[in-house]
Specification:
This protein has 243 residues and is mainly alpha-helical. It contains 14 helices and no strands.
């Protein structure tokens, strides 16, 4: 099963993986995303219950599925939320979605530890209040802890109607743990992507914009320290979240 968009639809559609992919703050968007993912995957199956035997793996179909799915997300998701989904998608395909991690993570670590000597800008009282809110929400820089046994257990024990449909022996033929393999790979995201998505969920627009503006300036000031290409990409990405 090599097609990234199809694999993305599989894990986003499942009830059992919801808490592994999303935070509780995402509850208002999760059901809509699952609904769209299921609808798109049903189109691929075309009335069948065997993905390998009945799916059309042509480039045209894959592009059509990709464009349809993301255009539907476009109608209700903010860019940082869409980028989170895209980062999962790219991870599935062994591609690098964002070079933001190398440029932003060291800055975030210094900022969270109030390492003023390593930061070019003064940490204002407003920013300290924002950092306090982040600390109180127990958000920090960390990699997701992937427990493959837990993922498999959750998959096998899920009893929702859709999950039972996807767990049919015919769906992925002899590879009955295919969704688990996809999820284990997909969740190995970079720490900056995870952090910014979580912070976006708990801060209001004004505070999130202040944090982004600080990070943008800091990335720009560190051109001699970090890879310049990564800096440029990170700066552009962060600026896009201000809109």
């Amino acid at each position: 099963m090599r097609q990234g968009i199809d694999q993305l639809l599989v894990i986003l559609s499942l009830d059992c993986f919801t808490n592994l992919i999303w935070d509780k703050e995402d509850i208002n968007i999760v059901e809509k995303i699952k609904e769209i993912a299921r609808d798109e995957f049903k189109k691929i199956l075309n009335g069948s219950s065997n993905y390998y035997m009945n799916a059309d793996f042509s480039a045209d179909r894959l592009k059509k599925t990709h464009d349809s799915f993301y255009s539907r997300l476009e109608k209700f998701l903010e860019k940082i939320q869409k980028d989170y989904i895209k980062s999962i998608h790219f991870r599935i395909e062994d591609k690098v979605f964002s070079k933001i991690n190398e440029a932003v993570t060291p800055i975030l670590i210094d900022l969270l530890w109030l390492n003023q000597e390593k930061i070019s800008q003064p940490i204002s009282n407003d920013l300290l209040e924002i950092l306090y809110k982040i600390e109180n929400s127990e958000i920090n820089i960390q990699e997701i802890d992937i427990d493959d046994e837990e993922i498999e257990h959750i998959w096998k024990e899920s009893n929702s109607e859709w999950d039972r449909f996807m767990r049919q022996g015919s769906m992925f033929e002899d590879i009955d743990d295919m969704p688990c393999l996809i999820l284990s790979k997909a969740l190995r995201l970079d720490s900056a992507t995870i952090f910014l998505r979580k912070v976006h969920a708990i801060l209001d627009h004004k505070d999130f914009s202040k944090l982004l503006t600080f990070l943008i300036k800091e990335v720009n000031s560190n051109t001699n320290i970090y890879n310049s290409e990564n800096n440029k990409f990170a700066q552009t990405t962060l600026e896009s979240y201000l809109n």
